[in-house]
Amino acid sequence: MKAPSQVRKAIREMAGYAPGEQPKGRLRKILKLNTNENPFPPPEPVLEALREAIGSDLRLYPEPTSLPVRQAAARAYGVDVDQVVVGNGSDDVLTM
C-alpha cells in the first residue's frame, strides 16, 4: 500500500513489522529469548484476577470511536479530545 504524499519521506519508506519465525513440530520446545515470549503460563492467581476484571464484556466490541479512552487521555494531557488518536498499534496509527 502506497502512503499519501503528505506523509514524511522517512515514514513512507518504513517497512512494517515482520514477526520472527515460529518453531514448528519438535522445535516448539525451543525457548526463544529474543521475542519477549514467556514459556510459562500465568500463575493461577493471575488468571483468576483477570477473570474477575474482565467480566463478560470481553466478548463485545469496544466503543468504535474509542471515545472513553480518548477523553481520559485528553484530560490526562490537558488537550482537546479531538487531538487524541487511538489505534491498534503504531502501524495502524501511521496508516491513519
Secondary structure elements and their pairing?
Layout: H1 9-12, H2 44-54, H3 67-77, H4 90-95
Describe the overall structure.
The protein has 96 residues and is an all-alpha fold. Helices cover 33% and strands 0% of the residues. It contains four helices and no strands. It is flat, with a radius of gyration of 19 Å. The two termini are 12 Å apart. The mean pLDDT is 85.
Short description:
The chain has 96 residues and is mostly helical.
Characterize the largest beta sheet: strand count, sense, and whether it forms a barrel. none
> Rg to the nearest angstrom?
19 Å
* Percent helix: 25-40%
Please provide the count of β strands. Answer: 0
Tertiary shape: flat
Q: Helical element count?
A: 4
Straight-line N-to-C gap: 12 Å
Spell the H/E element sequence. HHHH
- Average pLDDT taken over every residue: 85
- Helix/strand/pairing class, anyone? mainly alpha
Determine the strand fraction and express it as a percent band. under 5%
Low-confidence stretches are none
